[in-house]
Amino acid sequence: MTTFFRLSFFGLLVGLLAMTAAKPKRVVFFGDSITQAGIKPGGYIDRLKSMVPADQYELVGAGIGGNKIYDLFLRMDEDVLAKQPDVVVIWVGVNDVWHKATSGTGTDPDKFVRFYEAVVKKFQAANVRVVLCTPAAIGEKNDMTNQQDGDLNQYSQFIRDLAKRQNLPLVDLRKAFQDYNLKNNPENKDRGILTADRVHLNEAGNQFVADQMKTVLLQVK
Amino acid sequence: MTTFFRLSFFGLLVGLLAMTAAKPKRVVFFGDSITQAGIKPGGYIDRLKSMVPADQYELVGAGIGGNKIYDLFLRMDEDVLAKQPDVVVIWVGVNDVWHKATSGTGTDPDKFVRFYEAVVKKFQAANVRVVLCTPAAIGEKNDMTNQQDGDLNQYSQFIRDLAKRQNLPLVDLRKAFQDYNLKNNPENKDRGILTADRVHLNEAGNQFVADQMKTVLLQVK
Amino acid sequence: MTTFFRLSFFGLLVGLLAMTAAKPKRVVFFGDSITQAGIKPGGYIDRLKSMVPADQYELVGAGIGGNKIYDLFLRMDEDVLAKQPDVVVIWVGVNDVWHKATSGTGTDPDKFVRFYEAVVKKFQAANVRVVLCTPAAIGEKNDMTNQQDGDLNQYSQFIRDLAKRQNLPLVDLRKAFQDYNLKNNPENKDRGILTADRVHLNEAGNQFVADQMKTVLLQVK
Amino acid sequence: MTTFFRLSFFGLLVGLLAMTAAKPKRVVFFGDSITQAGIKPGGYIDRLKSMVPADQYELVGAGIGGNKIYDLFLRMDEDVLAKQPDVVVIWVGVNDVWHKATSGTGTDPDKFVRFYEAVVKKFQAANVRVVLCTPAAIGEKNDMTNQQDGDLNQYSQFIRDLAKRQNLPLVDLRKAFQDYNLKNNPENKDRGILTADRVHLNEAGNQFVADQMKTVLLQVK
Description:
4 copies of one chain form a homotetramer. In chain A, strands 2-1-3-4-5 form a 5-stranded parallel beta sheet, sandwiched between helices. The first copy, chain A, has a single domain, classed as Rossmann fold, CATH 3.40.50.1110. The two termini of chain A are 33 Å apart. Chain A has helices at 3-22, 33-36, 44-49, 69-79, 94-102, 109-125, 149-165, 173-184, 203-217; strands at 25-31, 57-63, 87-91, 129-133, 170-171. In chain A, β4 (129-133), α7 (149-165) and β5 (170-171) form a beta-alpha-beta unit. By secondary structure, chain A is an alpha/beta fold. Chain A is built from 9 helices and 5 strands. At the A-B interface, α7 of A face α7 of B. Chains A, B, C, D: Residues 29-207 form the SGNH hydrolase-type esterase domain. Chains A, B, C, D: GO terms for molecular function: phosphatidylcholine lysophospholipase activity. Chains A, B, C, D: One of its GO terms (biological process) is lipid metabolic process. Chains A, B, C, D: Pfam families: Lipase_GDSL_2.
């Protein structure tokens, strides 16, 4: 190999490394109030920032309180695609179920799936890799007596089925929370284990979600 | 012992037996549309009639479609106490949960307990023995993904707690249905195992409920 | 007339006056959060106290947040009859309608009437005079575009019909609020005229309700 | 004018007429169960067919039971745009309001407007002229005591505002039905005037809607 080629090869290598260093993966967390709170100090996104290589990941929050799947659909252009992300982590579903009871405006099961698929399809068309998450909890009681347990299980299953159907990475927070509560909630309390108020994450919950997210995120190429 | 006394004693015995034969236990089944259908040919009450000694039990239906616990409270004087029952089997709860979604007029958890206690108390004050039942099902899927599973579990637990607190006989239909579906619903269907339409009993369901009821009923003195 | 009789007559008069002075009418205001707030300084009950003769009326609050008609039924013995009132002012209905949307546990129209009648009947059996009120508002827009306007009108009509049927005094707050807003809410705002938050009274609202209540209260013998 | 030009002019005229005759306006009626029933014999679309010139209008139904505004959004490509209509008459809103009470899956007010605007925008981008309609009724009582009157008024107002904002033709069926019932429903019945069941059109209702639709349709160029 001539000096010329050696230098060229070295330069190429440096260039590639430089490019890698210059272009960390942009990951947008797209969701509801749980994600909106996730960017605050101590929030799950904030925690994740110090858990993944800073030069390889740029983590961005895009959560808005009260959002359901069709809210995500309506604002995905402006709030996510405009940021040109490499990866989008979609975490939604609590309000689709909960709002049935609290305002009569939850999301029909079949419409939940259709809008979820539409969101995924549009991200994929823009070459954005998509990570799915199941909704974690509305109440932490571990004996399936939280009011929305059945419905939340149902909508989580829709997301699991979609992930399987399309071979998409999944953070199964619903299952992770239920397993955790079976072991760590001996008094069968409805909050205070991983959530502060049955839905929103407390300190332990933010760390727990960050841990779950990290495992899957590092596997996304 | 003289002949006179012997005959008197014999007469007394015959009289007592006659009275026993003449006064079977009157059992009123007090509930919603499931119980309303229970008196039809093939219904669970109709089936029970041929499963218990006819000279010892008089079975009466008092079910009205759509009833919740406070409907039972409002009509218990007229529809049950007026019939001077010995035993009342209370089977209610499906509509207390279901109507939250279908008309916005379900029953608050704490109010469900308070009215249930008020109904029991009033029966006991009239020397009527009370048998409690848990609501069986709104959907038969066996993996806790029926929309109302969490809430129905919660209200069933209220009834179990009340039965335990007051030492009352309980027909735990919720648990019986769930156990049955785990074994006999391999395709995880939402109806067609013990119900015709997710809620109301099919033929197998009527027989199953009659079996469960019989076991407890025969133990009530 | 002899001195004896004159003195006797005078004594009787003094006695009667003394009794009157010693026994002002005890009026219990029985309702929800609006009435719970009514006893605070500036609340409608607090204002009424300085608007009626203090030696003739003793005004007592018995409001609990979130109460519907059947909550009143469940607690009327303990919270009202135990206080041996002469008059009870029943003001309820907002939650019976509102909770349909906010928790799925509103009150069925026919059950609203039945429990309302049961409450009235029980007060009358205890020789307590009853004053009825219609629920004022969930939203103050004056063009019938508040979400619950239709339902609130319907339940108000039930109360008007009951008042008419039983010839009971009525404070028609629904009508009074609607008339007031037609004149005094030119921008068609949903709050800020007589309410602070679409439902609970602001300063003007508390005075307005006190005025309406006073007129009817002074006519109750 | 020479014979040549006379003949040319005549030919042009014939050609234009021929084109007109060959290409009637294709009008798609896009809505819910009311529109689904509208194509049946005696339905409002069926009636309209004999009320407008057959050579100028081709009327097509695209109604599906239970549809809300976002159902229309999800199926507009396949069910309407694929038919290459000249005009689309959008009539939706009853289920957006009604489903709040009957399944907890009504449409949020702000989301109703956003999806409605999205539907209109997409039709306009495809050069389809759009006609808007307000939802007629859930109950025909004329004193604003139908449960959903307030909410239906609110959503109707959203549609009126949108029509005004974008200068779009509007068939204000809500107003027309209310005016009609004030005059023709002296017993204040909740059905049987223009509807069979509070929502779906009876014979008079289908004719009434056809009349209202015709007036606006003939004005659309």
